Amino acid sequence: MSPKLKFPLSGVLLLVLLVPILAACGAGTTSAPVVETVVVTTEPEVIVVTATPGEDMGSTETPADTPPDAEQTGEWQTPHPILGTLEVRQAIAYCTDRRSLIESVYPFLEDDEKDALLMDTFLPQGHWALAPDEEITIYEFDPERGNALLEEAGWIAEAEGEPRFNEAGDPLTLKFTTTNAAFRQTWAAVLEQQLLENCGIQIIRTHAPGSWWFGNTTGLQRRDFELGAFAWVGQADPGGTTLYACNQIPLPDNNWEGQNYMGWCNETASRAVLAANNKLDRDQRIEQFHALQAEFTADMVSLPLFNRFEAAAASNNLVNFRPNPTTDSILVNVDEWELADGGDTVVLGFTQEPASLWLVVEDAAVANSASGLLKVRAVTSFDYDYQPDALEELPTIENGGTVLNTVEPAVGDTVWSVDGEAVELAEGVEVINADGEIVAYDGSPITLNQLAVTFEFPAMTWEDGEPLKAADYELAYAIECSEDSGAISLTVCNSIADVEFRDNGYTITYLPGAQWAEYFAYTLGTYSNLFSVGAYPSHQELADGRKLADVPASEWSTLPEIAEQPLSYGPYRLVEWQKGQRMIFEANPNYYKGEVAIKTLIIEFFDDTNQAVAQLLTGNVDVLGSETLGAGPELETVLEAAEAGQIQAFPITSPTWEHMDMNLFIR
Description:
CATH topology of the largest domain: Dipeptide-binding Protein, domain 3
Structural class: alpha+beta
Oligomer: single chain
């Protein structure tokens, strides 16, 4: 038996100690209202978050089996015959021994370290917005209570360890879908056994490829599941708009926009998450987040399982390697990396190859990392906070980079409603006024806040020597905010009233009433999950003779110049992509910060984590990120090697959290 290892779970503590930049003046830093780039990722399977209609699905006021209201039309109107019942969903929670799930994948952690990974809501322990226990429903492992709820719901036990049946003779059987990562197969097997043995709930597991499960037109996005397991990557701010608002339920009628895969529409919760993400006063936001968590746990539409324990590792030769729980990539500070022996080549190991480098349609962590080498970040997000990168300072209200105006819109003007939608002002439309109150417009004068945020960047140059200019920023906005781009959500885009473009940046003016707590970090590049500057080379001539600026958004995902060989304005340029083997990057001579120490960076693709770890330990690979190491036995191997001094490892309590969604409706 391998020795027990003890590592500091610093990520949880940081959540307590670090607060958003604008906290002192009452502003939060959410992932929020509109852009919600929470990382729905995909490798050992995670998701990067970006930010629809019905009625209280399972709220405390409205039973879960109540059909959606008249606004929800088309398919997905029929409550799920099993999961549409609140008692069944709660029973699943009580019958799940989450500590056993943690033990199955992290046997090398001490008991207190395992306990630190437990979650009762969508926020980890210690988070500044976490609701106190007395305000939420907590589901301790209690199979006796779970069985009682199932009996109450009409599910009869015939034999211990066998599925329950209802009066019609239907078995209590649910399809469980997740990825084929070994990590998920491990804990899902434990879940399957405990649900059946403890409570007579049978799950039939499907472990699908991540490319299908996280595809834009398959799996989760088309709500093709009953029980669905995956991970969200948390951020400094809870956000949640795209996950829990009623108008973020993917449906055929809305072209499958949104990430509320459960189909959960609880009006109290929806109002709370929208309000929490449309306020600048932190205390007011906390109050709304607490209300959201109360409804979320009472309705039990998604069972939080545990925070992931992860690590990144590197050779002892690598200097300035700075993995962090809340940055989207281990390469976030790659331009600062050096090798102690004076070498100039670094090899990274990935166990998944990017399908595309256009992050609008590809949100896997490996794509995020590789694409990030070609871009410049306006903002970084170390330690659950935000820091300027290309920006000299974050454009806040306090330093004058952002202006908060008050305006009096007239009937027919476009405003941002309390439901987080761009609407024409008319009688009965509900908005948040300048005093932070939800009011219904009655025709009398009304005052709303309007944000204007200015991002100014240093002079930057594309790898071909062409300077970045206003047209490049304008092209990013036009494409990434196009309905034809393939983006999962356009919520933030829809909240923008106007953008003024300049060669050194742009000013974003939001609709009256739209107040994103992370306004100072929402660059045009935020929509592709990088907090990058946000630019495309409008001057680039394509192989077919067209200028990139003339190509419609619907064609971008298939352009080799975008998906496979994009021009760089970041620290590296892509010089070769040997499909299935490696990607080779060289230092960009036109990088605005100057020459980088590592001249060549190679991403090698391996069949599995074990092979990648073996190459790290033999010195053929220099870096493995948490997206490669995952959470299997190889993670323990790496941590033991670090203790022995062979390599350097950085264990963290990840903001990534495993959970199981329950689909409340069927087609």
